Amino acid sequence: MDIAGKVAVVTGGSAGIGLAIAKALADAGAGAIVIGDIDDTKGEAAVAGIIDKGAKSVYKHTDVSNADKVRALYEEAVNNFGQVDIAFNNAGIMLGEPGWPDVGIEQVGRVVKINLLGVMYGTRVAVDVMSKTGGGIVINTASPAGFGPMPNDPMYSSTKAAIINFSFSCVTLQASHNIRVNTIMPGVTDTAILNKSGDGNAPAEWLQPLLGMINILTVEDIAKGAIDVIEDDSRVGEALSIENPAETGGEVGYIRLKDNTAFHERALGR
Ligand SMILES: NC(=O)c1ccc[n+]([C@@H]2O[C@H](COP(=O)([O-])OP(=O)(O)OC[C@H]3O[C@@H](n4cnc5c(N)ncnc54)[C@H](O)[C@@H]3O)[C@@H](O)[C@H]2O)c1
Questions:
Q1: 59 pairs with which residues across the strands?
Q2: Is 189 in the pocket of ligand 1 (CB under 6 A)?
Q3: Which residues pair with 35 in a beta bridge?
Q4: 148-164 pLDDT per residue, tens
Q5: Fewer beta carbons within 10 angstroms: which end of the chain, N or C?
Q6: Least confident of 96-100, 162-166, 257-261
Q7: Has 254 been annotated as catalytic?
Q8: In a mutational test of the pocket of ligand 1, which residue from 9, 14, 17, 106 has the highest number of ligand atoms less than 8 Å from its CB?
Q9: Out of 59, 74, 121, 156, which one is annotated catalytic?
Q10: Cβ neighbourhood burial of 54 (10 Å; 0-12, 13-18, 19+)
Q11: pTM of the model
Q12: Which domains does the chain carry?
């Protein structure tokens, strides 16, 4: 997809990876970027930064765990800019303290609703909206954490695993609706979510040894991977793992995973 002139919706776009992706879209010539987030102050600042780059932008307060609010976010995009071409379902949280299994049951549901249902709601509405204008691309933010156990925060790792599977399962939307659905899986990246794994001021104790061992990625590293996926129309049903330089010999690495199971091939009618 040529990003020039396109309209994008980015959830969790007030800060961190979502903000970097919103800025990278503006740098790539996107016509308009609609930010949905719950941090209104940072959201309005994000919009100002995007407008400075020459794109149009609006912010809408959106809790992605609420399907009606997610629909309203897309309606805001259509009302302002006529269509949506790029949907970035990116908002996500970690469990925070106390970790598993001491966490309160409400927080268990909160993580699942934001991380997983938020992605499902966003994808569902994107299908409705994009179908009216001939298609588009959906990118969902998962994590390499989705591939392994995470004893202190299994809500995070299991919702991320589910996003990978959900997005693989949406591959048929390309044939049926001309909508490419892909996943990005950022390695550990320097954002506020690291402190949110703990008490908000510092990473959780269980995470700190890992952080001391690795080179942490920048949000720009992740945005570059996302832009590559958007621009390359051949990439569909893919989960892009954006790897730590320390594990790839000094450069940011990309591992492209694709669901090529026989079942998947049958689902595609091949
Ligand atoms: N930073 C990492 O190391 C890392 C690694 C892998 C995956 N990820 C994923 O990347 C995504 C972005 O995380 P980040 O690292 O930029 O974190 P971040 O905390 O910097 O940004 C998350 C954004 O989501 C927003 N948000 C939180 N709850 C929301 C809700 N209910 N509705 C709408 N917006 C909400 C926050 O206000 C914030 O702006 C998340 O899905 C996260 O799981 C991050």
A1: 35
A2: yes
A3: 10, 59
A4: 899 999 999 999 999 99
A5: C
A6: 257-261
A7: no
A8: 17
A9: 156
A10: exposed
A11: 0.95
A12: 7-267 (3.40.50.720)
